[in-house]
Amino acid sequence: MNVLDTIGHTPLARLRALAPEGTSIGAKLEWQNPTGSVKDRMALAVIERAEADGRLRPGDTVVEYTGGSTGASLALVCAAKGYRIRIVSSDAFAREKLDQMRALGAEVIVVPSEGGQTTRQLILDMIEAARALARAPHTYWTDQLNNHDAVAGYTALGEEIWKDTAGAVDAFVHSVGTAACIRGVAAVLKRRKPAVRIVAVEPAESAVLSGGAPGPHKIEGVGIGYVPPLWEPSLVDEIVAVPTAEAKAMARRLAREEGWFAGTSSGANVIAARQVAERLGAGASVVTLMADSGLKYLNTDVFQADQGLSSPG
Description:
Radius of gyration: 18 Å
Shape: globular
Strand order of the largest sheet: 1-2-10-7-8-9
Helix content: 25-40%
Order of helices and strands: EEHEHEHEHEHHEHEEHHE
Mean pLDDT: 95
Number of strands: 10
CATH architecture of the largest domain: 3-Layer(aba) Sandwich
Distance between the termini: 43 Å
């Protein structure tokens, strides 16, 4: 076994204190992947599929734009397989993520942000910087927002959820970044159980999937400011918008009340999962993801010691 064999097959745990009475909210603990993120799944898929059809060859360099988790995941896979990797990221994202990418051997190019916020323009600037790097010879650009191989990386996650719940899942809830994860999981669950509800989560400050205007926010890794190319609305039954402040507060509550140490998008996931469980009522079974580890956010205001404990809905 090598490190890449440890990707996936994460445990599903259930909320003890924060699930509405009479309901069940479970989450796949994706922080147990090697880099502490669900993105390990897609990184392995996009690299191995590119190897299989010749887009990526020995000696090539991999290029990507990323808020950090995808970059760390790709850097891990490239380190294990012997590829050089160049990553475009930004100071809008947690320092721990930039440090993790570098620790795994990535060359990181940092694009300045507007006040540390994720905005549509920042994403577009990062993409263009990666596009320029990808013009170099012997380079493979994974281009996560447009890469359908990423969707295939999450079908196994859907099968795991089905198996872990023995088919007793009424809804799946997850925040949308590239949309590859929710699309891959939804395709599996909808095929297995057409009545299952698929609920997408996005930042309230940039609720473009709900028809709103783009805006700056601080839920890292999601809410790119425009509809991602991999978004498939026919697979989604509902969209829930969660404010950044509430997502951060829920991340703190998860750590202190459940012992679940995860990032801001995971906090948003739980807020939306609770709303869905309350609407579905007694006996409902809702599944979501702890998308990454709280260790990636220790130097952000999510887990600063002077932050008080608040109670989002």
